[in-house]
Amino acid sequence: MSKSILLLLVLFFFSLKNSYAVTISQLKSLIDRYSLEIGIEKTAIEKSKLLRKATFRSYFPRISLTGEVDEFYPYTGFFSKSWNQQYTLGISVSANPLNLQRNVQLKVDKYSIEVNKDALEKTRLELYSQAINYLLKLKTLEKLIEIRKELLRSSKEILKISEKKYKNGLVLITDVLKSKANVEKAKTSLRNTEKEYSQAFNLLNELVNFSLKTGEKAEVELLEEVKLPKIKKLISIALLKRPEIYKLKKEIEIAKLNVEIQKKTLSPQLNFSASYTRSGTAFFPDKDNYQLSAVLSFPIFDSGVTKLKSLAVTKDLISKELSLKKQENAIKREVLNAVEAVNSAMEEVKSAKSFLNYSKEAYKRVLNEYKLGVSDIVALLQAFDNLKTAEESYINSLFNLNSAYYELKKATGELLYGGKK
Length: 421
Prior knowledge:
Elements: H1 2-19, E1 21-22, H2 24-34, H3 36-57, E2 62-76, E3 81-99, H4 100-167, H5 173-207, E4 217-218, H6 231-241, H7 243-263, E5 269-280, E6 287-297, H8 305-372, H9 377-412, H10 414-417
Parallel strand pairs: 1-4
Antiparallel strand pairs: 2-3, 3-5, 5-6
Helix pairs in contact: 2-4, 3-4, 4-5, 4-7, 4-9, 6-8, 7-8, 8-9
C-alpha cells in the first residue's frame, strides 16, 4: 500500500513538473494568442477588409433628405410688398454605376488585405525568433545555475578540506581565508545567474503579454550538432518561404494597379439621380416637383496632367521592383551568414567540450594532490576556476550553436512555415 502511494506521489510530481514546462510549439501558440504586436497586425487586416467593403458599397445608390428655408423680397400682397419665406422639403437618390477607377481600386483593396496578411506573417516570424532565443537563453541559464550550485558545493568542500588541514597544522590560515573567499565568490556568481534568469524570463513573458506563470521552465533541447542541407537548397527555401518576398510581390501588383488608376482618370463616368421635392410659402409646402437626370461625362484632355501623374506613379513601380531584388539579396546574405554562424558554433562546441574534459580531469587530480599535501591552495583554486570557466564556456557554446541554428530557420522561413508554404 505504501509503495502504491509513493508511486502516485512520484507520478504527480512529474505531471506537475511537465505542466510548468514551455516547449517551442507551445510558445508559438502563446505568441499567436496573446502577443500585442500580433493583435496590432490583425487589426490592420480588419481595417483593410472594411475599406474594401466601403469601396464596394460605393456602387450602391445614396439617399439624401433635404430641407430648405429661403427668405425673399418682395412678396406682393393686396396692398403692399413684404418679406416672405419659401419652404422646400425633398428626397433624392443618386448613383455612380460606371466608374472605371473604382473598379481598379477594388483590386487594390484586395491586394492590400494580402499585403497586411504578409506583414502579419513577417511580424510573427520576428516574434517566434525572438521568443525562441529567450527560451534557449532560459535553458542555458538553468544549466548554468545547476553548474554554479555544484561549483558552490565544490568550493565548500575545498573549504572543509583546508579547515581540516589547518587544524592538523598542515597548512597556514591563508589557505582557509582563500577558500572562504572562493565560497563567497561562488555564491555571488550563483546569485547573479539567478538574477539574469529572472530578467530573461520577464523579457520572454513580455512577448506573450505576461501569460506565463511564475516558475515555468524552458522545455527545449540544446543540440550539440546539427546537419544542414546544401546552401543552394537553403537559399531556394528562403526565397520560397519568407513573407517579405510575398509582401513585396503584392506591393508590385498594387503599384501596377495604381498606374492603371491614374490612366483611367480620362475615362467615362455615368451618374444617375432622381429627386422629389415639395415647395411653397406655407410651412407644410404643397407644390410637387420631380426630377430625373442621367449624366455621362467623358474627359478627353487635361493638358497632360494624367500622363505626368501616370509616369510619376510608374516610378513607384520601378522602386518596388528594385526593393524586391534588394530583399532577395538581403535574404541570401542572411542565409549565408547564418550557415557560417552554425558551422563556426559547432567547432566552438567541440573545442569547449574538449576543454571541459581536460579541466575536469585536472581539477580531480589537483584536488587529490591537495588532500595528500603535495599541492598548494593556489594550484587547487586555479584548477577550480579553470573548471568553472570550462563548464560555462561549454554551456554558452551550446547556446550559441542553437541560437545560430534557429536564426538559420528564421532566415529560411522554416521557423514560420515548417515544411509548408
